[in-house]
Amino acid sequence: MRERVWLGRCPDYDGEALFEKISGAFEALGVYDSIKPGMTVVLKPNLIQSSKPQAAICTHPAFTQAVGKCVQRAGGKVLIAESPGGPYSPAVMKAFFRNCGYTDMAESCGFSLYTDCKSREVSLPEGERCRRVSIVEPFLERDFLIDLPKLKTHCMVGYSGAVKNMFGAVPGLQKPELHCRFPEKEDFSKALVDICAFLRPDFSLMDGVWAMEGDGPTGGLRRDIGFIGASRSPYALDVCMAGLLGFPEGSLPMLAESARRGLGPKSFTETELLGESPEGLQVADFKRARASSTDFIDRLPGFLRPAAKKLSTPYPRVQKKGCVGCGKCAESCPQKAISMEGGRAVISYKACIRCFCCHEMCPRHVVGVKRLGLFQW
Ligand code: SF4
Ligand code: SF4
Hints:
Blueprint: E1 4-9, H1 15-28, H2 31-34, E2 40-45, H3 61-73, E3 77-80, H4 90-99, H5 103-109, E4 112-113, E5 119-123, E6 132-136, H6 137-141, E7 144-148, E8 150-154, E9 158-160, H7 162-165, H8 174-181, H9 185-199, E10 203-213, E11 221-231, H10 234-244, H11 253-260, E12 272-275, H12 295-298, H13 305-312, E13 315-318, H14 328-332, E14 338-341, E15 344-347, H15 357-361, E16 367-370
Parallel strand pairs: 1-12, 2-3, 2-7, 3-4, 7-10, 8-10
Antiparallel strand pairs: 1-11, 5-6, 8-9, 10-11, 13-16, 14-15
Helix pairs in contact: 1-3, 9-11
The structure holds iron/sulfur cluster (2 copies).
């Protein structure tokens, strides 16, 4: 059976219009019927970095609010849970929720915010790369899980959507450990699919009202795309969204891997589209992140590829002028490749595995993504 993906236009985060739109997705995909009164419904937004909604780094609080109200309409209890990339503690989470605009929103709507920060190690019997991992408790104990990704590019894996958003269920500094275990983007993408397949979100809704293009997931530019996507399958949703943004079929290892395992479709032509017509929703000029491999390298003779790949792989570079020496990049680095010298971050490229956690976590956005001049395109 074809997976169903619902698409809708939504030019801004206006409360009533947004609620009606999202409610339409709940209706079309049978979600109102699946949520029973009294169920605990966990909402998993993307709150990767403590930032204001206007920056388009995190799932907008108005978007999460509209989803939560739909859950309440069905009689469910809303619990919002997330673990960003750095240290994971009750104080950190309270500050994150406050800075991202979630605290007042949750209080006014009667939603709970998860700040206990408890996690458990679990085994992933069907994992192909990742067989054991820690997961934040509400994601294991929920009655129903709603995945609320932000539509963004991603420097390491190309695109950050519904499948990648489930990585946030891994507590704080254990994320860099996984980067360390799987430094190549292909292996890391497989581990992301392992985690998403284990967690099995029941419903995914993508906030593409304000998206991010360029060097996402935190250092790119906001692009007001004005659309929302939804599906019971995170894989089908990602394939559709990536297709609308012009990513060629099979070019994103995470989605190619999902299709290989039979979890999702290869192309959005294999899905059943509901809601509004995709006509006019395509964003062909959406700027990509400076990704770590290219078609050009794949076409070189085999013996040249390792050297070309090494030379062409982008690397992080700290702009000394803007660095305030806060150390957040060093905290998130899985290789301990960053030291603080003279109050500024310094990267040891010998140890660096190009995971771009430092780029993601720098609150000043001064860790850039660079490529050798010969390989600039
Ligand atoms: S320096 Fe940055 S890109 Fe390199 S390993 Fe550390 S966090 Fe990853
Ligand atoms: S590079 Fe960014 S995260 Fe690292 S110390 Fe400087 S300001 Fe802080």
